[in-house]
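**User:** I keep going back and forth on a fold encoding question. It is easy to fool oneself when nobody else works the same problem. Could you pick a protein and write out its sequence and tokenised fold? Could you put it straight underneath, so I can go through it closely?

**Assistant:**
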Amino acid sequence: MAVQSLNHVTIRPHDLKATRNFYVDIVGLRDGARPPFGFPGYWLYAGETPVIHLVGKNNGAVVGSGAIDHVAFVYEAEDYDRVAATLDAHGIDSKRQTVPDLGSRQIFIEDPDGVWVELNFPAA
């Protein structure tokens, strides 16, 4: 059987630029190459993979199949302090917890459209 992996998540934000800035400046994704579709948007990369596709309004209508509860990213354990400091510097509210029995740490934040973003840091 072939190994499966998640390709990307598409978000249709109300404010395309603010949402792009959030995922680049706060989450740490990189704005990258995107085919020249006939509608505005961004492909945001984690490494070499465009994991978040942002799709702007097309003819004034936002369409989609439903809400996303949350999107999760994994960082290196040693990135925790840097990421927490970035959130604090930008005044972003967050919920922080340590996972019982596992010792991994999590930070939960909201993007500009209220989509929860889960940032995971393995136990050191």
Summary: The mean pLDDT is 88. The two ends are 33 Å apart (CA to CA). The first strand starts at residue 9 and ends at 11.
